[in-house]
Every structure is written in structure tokens, then in C-alpha cells.
Design brief:
Blueprint lengths: L1 E6 L2 E4 L4 E9 L4 E9 L6 E7 L4 E3 L7 E6 L4 E6 L8 E10 L3 E5 L3 E6 L1
Parallel strand pairs: 2-11
Antiparallel strand pairs: 1-3, 3-8, 4-5, 4-9, 5-6, 7-8, 9-10, 9-11
Length: 118
């Protein structure tokens, strides 16, 4: 099993920056990739960014050019640097770690609130 814990959310003004951190524990050698999703009130959870064991990254269209995911899957730690924040970035940000071999499972963190004021 894998457990995931996020940290670093908070309140920031439009145009500001925040850095989120995520650390996984447990069977970390089985982790294949990690990433961030977010969920705004009344909306579905959406992909923010992901990174795999080879260091390849992918981003949701709404955050490209503003957010950067980094980290080391082997060390089971990833970060999300968020610059140029907008009110529409407000939501609960969840870290995910996908792990396993023949069967891939997902471990989610409890979420961290990000609020961007106008």
C-alpha cells in the first residue's frame, strides 16, 4: 500500500504564487507516477499536472505555462510550483500516486485548500 500527504496550500492574491508538496510512504518502490488534481466547488476533479518515473511531465491546459511539477518518483516526493495564480485556480488540490505492477492502483491524499482572492 501507499499513503500520500500534501502540504502547502493557503490564501493568496491574484498573480501570487504558492508551492505545494507531496510525499508518499509505504510501498514507494512500486510507484509508477505521481501528480496533482484539483476540484473546485460544484465541479469535477481535474488533472493539474503529472510526472512519471522517467521525469516526463504533463499538464492540464488551464495551467500550462504557469504551473510546474517537479520531484523524484524514486524519492516519492513531488512539488507543484504555482505562479500567476487566478481566482479560477481556487479549489482543493489532491496529490495522487499510482502504484503497482500488473494491477495499477491509486492512492490519494486528503487534499489541501488553495484560495486565490480577486
Amino acid at each position: 500500500q501507499v499513503q500520500v500527504v500534501e502540504s502547502g496550500g493557503g490564501l493568496v492574491q491574484t498573480g501570487g504564487s504558492l508551492r505545494l508538496s507531496c510525499a508518499a510512504s509505504g510501498s514507494i518502490s512500486s510507484i509508477v507516477d505521481m501528480g496533482w488534481y484539483r476540484q473546485a466547488p460544484g465541479k469535477q476533479r481535474e488533472l493539474v499536472a503529472g510526472i512519471d518515473s522517467g521525469g516526463s511531465t504533463n499538464y492540464g491546459d488551464s495551467v500550462k505555462g504557469r504551473f510546474t511539477i517537479s520531484g523524484d518518483i524514486a524519492k516519492s516526493t513531488v512539488y507543484l510550483q504555482m505562479n500567476g495564480l487566478k481566482p479560477e485556480d481556487t479549489g482543493v488540490y489532491y496529490c495522487i500516486a499510482r502504484f503497482g505492477a500488473a494491477l495499477i492502483r491509486a492512492a490519494w491524499g486528503q487534499g489541501t485548500q488553495v484560495t486565490v482572492s480577486p
